[in-house]
Every structure is written in C-alpha cells, then in structure tokens.
Amino acid sequence: MKKIFHMLRSSYIWIILFFLYLPIIYTIVFSFNSSRSLSRFTGFSLQWYEKMLGDGAMTSSIYYTVLIAVIATAVSTIAGTIVAIALSKCGKVLRTLIMQVNNLPLLNPEIVTAIGLLMFFASLNIKKGLLTMLLAHIMFCIPYVMLSITPKLRTLDSNIADAAMDLGATPAYALRKVIVPQIMPGIFSGALIAFTMSFDDFIISYFVTGNGVNNISIMVYTMSKRINPSINALSSIIILLISVVLVIINVVPIMKERRRKKNYEKILRNTSHGGIAFNSMRRS
C-alpha cells in the first residue's frame, strides 16, 4: 500500500511538472523552427532571432522594459526600505493604518489601479509616455518591497541600533552598518519581486503609456493577433536570462557559505596548531 501511495505521489508530481514546463520547452523549440508554423517543426533555423534583433519596434520595447524595470526597482527599493524602517519606529495604530493603505494596491484589481492612474495623470495634464509609465511602475512596486522587508524588521532586535548609537555611531551610520545588513535578505527579495512585477506588467502599462513607448508585454499583445514566431525567440531569450539570474542567486550564496566554512576551518586549524606549539614550548 505504501509503495502504491509513493508511486501515485511521484506520478502526480511529474504530471504537474510536465504541464508547468511543457509550454516553456515548446516555446524554446519552436523559436528555432525554420517555418512560420507553430505546430509543426520543419527544421532548425535562427531566422526568427535575426528578425527579432532587426525589428526596431521589438528592440525598442526590450529597451524600454529593461530601463523602466531597473529604474523602478532601484527607486522603489530605496523608498520602500526607508518607509518600512520608519514605520517600524512608529506606534502600533499608525503603523497598522499605513500598512493597510500600503496593501490596497496589492488587493485592488490591476484594472482599477490602471484606471485610477489614468484619471490621475489626466487631471494633472501630464502627457502619457515614459514618465507616466515609470511613475506608475514605481507606485505599484513600493508595496511589494515594503511587504518583503517588514517581516525582517519584526524579527530585528530594536535595541541593536540604540546600542550602536550609545557606542558613538551616528543614526545614519547605524542605519547603514547595523540595520540595513540585518534586513538585506528582505531588501534583496523585495527588489527581485519589484523587478519581476515591473518587467511583467501589462494592464497598468497599457493604460498609462503613450508616444510609442511600449514594453514587451504590450508588444507581445499587439503581435498576438497575427502569427509571428519572433515572439518565441523573444520569449526564449527572456527565459534564458531568468534562468541565468536564478542560477546565480542560488549558486552565489552556496559558494559564499562554502568559502566561509573553509575560512572558519582554516582558523580552527591554525588556532589548534598554535595551541599545540605553545603547549610544547611550555613543556620544554
């Protein structure tokens, strides 16, 4: 009975993985198809990658997507970190109220947020374009950063910063050298989430863009009405970049931990050798 249960559980996991990764594999394989067919592989070719790189509109959308995602991630991470640290020093009532307001963009449907931003920019007579899209992305990325950092701040000892300032550190130095290193995993996670949300956003970007400023999501939407295998090539490059980033994120901490253990073992060996030498000198 246990073997049957184990086999069913393993089969279920493999079925889930199959349905999750089959579309990704399909996209990568057909990005090298020599024909426009999306159902029959006729031969290996790099023509769709060449056409993608030669398409000015597509390369422009990649440029704007990366530019906006990087700037929005940097600004929202800095702003979200500062606000989260400030809220941790506030009273419980004020902190709860502000966190509830911060969670509204997360709970609201994106279409509601998009319409609200559209009406807001229109009321201020701000011309839609790169600036409006960048401001919109910063706005909806900040709550994700704060949501990632707040749990780290709750586990942080509130007396650490006070102890640093009692020892002569300025508030800015204590913030930079004591608090920020302690919550760095939360900051890093928030930055990754912000970058992903900005890179992937379509609904809000579609409502606040203008003047030919399109990101990848909008470009794919406009190309989906007609068969264009260049989408497969673009998607494959994005998948490759994401895979490289995930490998780096997972491998670098492991390498650092191994290096730290090696240094620690080296110190222990040197210490033990030094103790042995010192004891032998005392006996002699």
Task: Describe the overall structure.
This protein has helices at 2-30, 47-54, 56-88, 92-107, 110-123, 130-154, 159-166, 171-182, 184-200, 203-208, 216-223, 230-283. The protein has twelve helices and no strands. The model has no long low-confidence stretch (mean pLDDT 83). 81% of the residues lie in helices and 0% in strands. The protein is globular. The longest helix has 54 residues, at 230-283. It is mainly α and 284 residues long. It starts with a helix and ends with a helix.
Query: Given the structure, what is the number of helices?
Result: 12
Instruction: Characterize the main sheet.
Output: none
Number of strands: 0
The whole-angstrom Rg is 26 Å
* Overall 3D shape: globular
> In which range does the helix fraction lie?
over 70%
- Beta percentage is under 5%
What are the low-pLDDT stretches, counting only 5+ consecutive residues below 50? none
Q: Which series of helices and strands comes N to C? A: HHHHHHHHHHHH
Distance between the terminal alpha carbons, to the nearest Å? 70 Å
By secondary-structure content and strand pairing, the structural class works out as: mainly alpha
Q: What is the arithmetic mean of pLDDT? A: 83
